[in-house]
Amino acid sequence: MNNTRTIVFRLNRSKKIAFVCAIVFSLVLLILVGYFIHSVGMADGRQAVEQNKLIAVELAELQTVLRDEQQRAVTAEKSAEIDRLAAEAVRKELLGYRHELAELQSSVDFYRGLMAPEELDKGLGLYGFHVTYNKRTNSYEYKALVTQAGAKNRLLKGTFSIRLMVESSDSSSKNAIKAYALSDLPSFVGELPAKLRFRFFQTIEGSFKLPDNLTPVSMAVELESTGKAAQKINKTFNWHDLLGAH
């Protein structure tokens, strides 16, 4: 026996209308809510796009400023390097001028001496003799200045020679001194004995290298003129005094 029962609700006309209106109202409300959400989303999207545009503009401006600052920094660094190089060049140039001025002053003093012959030795004379060590070539350079005073422009002729006095390595001769002609030393450059031929002064210069087994003591310079008023001068210079050693 089947006990199932069917219950049927019957709505009157007014309730049907109210039910339909409720459904329509709900749909309209859903549409309005959806439209509102869509509108708000679109507005937020437009605002985000505008913000992105502003950020892009600001980023471009910052990148331009950064490039400008980097360029200024590079320019300033190059300018500083140029200024440093220019200052170094000026310093070297001034140093060169000082050396040149010192040489010119020395030349002026020398020529003043020639203009005042009473300050020079009469006849043949040795005005100066110098020896310097050149580290670059590992050699010694000598320079001598020979003068003539009170000869009324007479042409002087003669010879000039140099000997190096060293301690002898011979054990049998204690403290013995041995003489070497400078032209016999290694890598000698110059002309010795040198020929003298001048009226007022003559410069003699050259260079030589010193063997390790030689211990210099002094240098002997010999000048000799020829003719009626022949003269002979011998001068010895201590090696350490010549090089300014202590």
What does this structure look like?
With 246 residues, the protein is an alpha+beta fold. The protein folds into two domains: 14-115; 121-243, G protein-activated inward rectifier potassium channel 1 (Immunoglobulin-like, Sandwich). The protein has helices at 13-115, 239-243; strands at 123-134, 139-149, 156-167, 177-181, 194-198, 201-208, 216-225, 232-238. The strands form two sheets. Strands 3, 4, 5, 7 and 8 form a five-stranded antiparallel sheet that branches. The protein starts with 12 loop residues before the first helix and ends with a helix. The mean pLDDT is 79.
Write the layout of secondary structure elements.
Layout: H1 13-115, E1 123-134, E2 139-149, E3 156-167, E4 177-181, E5 194-198, E6 201-208, E7 216-225, E8 232-238, H2 239-243
Antiparallel strand pairs: 1-2, 2-6, 3-4, 3-5, 3-7, 7-8
Quick gist of this model?
By secondary structure, this protein is α+β, with helices and mostly antiparallel strands. It is built from two helices and eight strands; from the N terminus they run αββββββββα.
The strand count comes to 8
Strand content: 25-35%
Main sheet overview:
5 strands, antiparallel
Low-confidence stretches: none
Our count of domains comes out at 2
Arithmetic mean pLDDT:
79
Envelope shape: rod-shaped
Radius of gyration: 54 Å
**CATH fold category name of the largest domain:** Immunoglobulin-like
CATH superfamily of the largest domain: G protein-activated inward rectifier potassium channel 1
* Structural class computed from helices and strand pairing: alpha+beta
Query: Which CATH first-tier class of the largest domain would you pick?
Result: Mainly Beta
Instruction: Give the CA-CA distance, first to last residue.
Output: 147 Å
Give the helix level as a range of percent: 40-55%
Tally of DSSP helical segments: 2
CATH architectural grouping of the largest domain: Sandwich
| H/E series | HEEEEEEEEH
